[in-house]
Design goal:
With 197 residues, the chain is α/β, with parallel strands linked by helices. The protein contains six helices and seven strands; from the N terminus they run H-E-H-E-H-E-E-E-E-H-H-H-E. The protein has a domain of 130 residues: Rossmann fold (3-Layer(aba) Sandwich). The chain has a five-stranded parallel beta sheet. It has a two-stranded antiparallel ribbon with strand order 3-4. Helix 4 packs antiparallel against helix 5.
């Protein structure tokens, strides 16, 4: 596993990519649900003077098969995300960050923002064999699935989620996090590993 690093190292590496890349660099930030992916993504976006809407969460790319009964790899439409990455990495880069989204509810639409100097994508299970070439910098947040899931469940209680949704942390999301760790070892695929805060 890569040695633990610091936020400052991540920020320095990202700024260097922006300055030296001949195309828009793509940063992937991943970890288990509740590990702090969104918080980290918002922090680095703010430090780089990006808006929150220029950060792309995988929650924008739910598959038509998503739901409590879907398999670990069936929650997200990876082809939609891949299409976005390919579009952003074109030379010359498009002027706008534009992509189709599909939310958990099934609602679809188009998101459009000014093209940022770096594309930050955050979400669970981002790192896998299929996505190895998608990212110029892959960042894994090191927090075990049980601790991350407990934190996420507590957050969802405060959000007012119903009991059936809360129960999924124990019956689905945390067990799938353990399965993902065992099958993929995502830290191995990351360039940087940050401890959860």
């Amino acid at each position: 596993m890569n040695r633990p690093t610091t936020y400052q190292e991540l920020l320095t590496r990202t700024r260097a990519l922006i300055e030296t890349s001949h195309r828009v660099p793509v940063i992937g930030i991943s970890g288990h649900g509740g590990s702090g992916k969104s918080t980290l993504s918002e922090r680095i976006a703010a430090d780089l003077e990006l808006t929150a809407d220029q950060v792309v969460p995988t929650d924008c790319f739910y598959a038509t098969s998503c739901g409590p009964d879907a398999g670990m790899w069936e929650q997200h439409d990876w082809s939609m995300l891949e299409a976005l990455v390919k579009d952003v990495r074109r030379i010359p880069a498009p002027d706008r960050l534009r992509y189709e989204y599909r939310w958990w509810s099934g609602e679809t639409g188009v998101e459009e923002q000014p093209m940022p100097p770096v594309l930050i994508i955050e979400g669970i299970r981002l790192f896998q064999e299929r996505t190895r070439d998608w990212f110029d910098l892959a960042v894994w947040i090191d927090m075990n699935p049980l601790a991350a899931g407990a934190r996420a469940r507590a957050r969802n209680v405060l959000q007012g989620d119903d009991q059936s949704e809360l129960d999924l942390w124990n019956t689905k999301w945390i067990p799938e996090g353990h399965q993902y760790e065992a099958e993929v070892d995502p830290a191995r695929l990351a360039d940087l590993v940050l401890p959860a805060e």
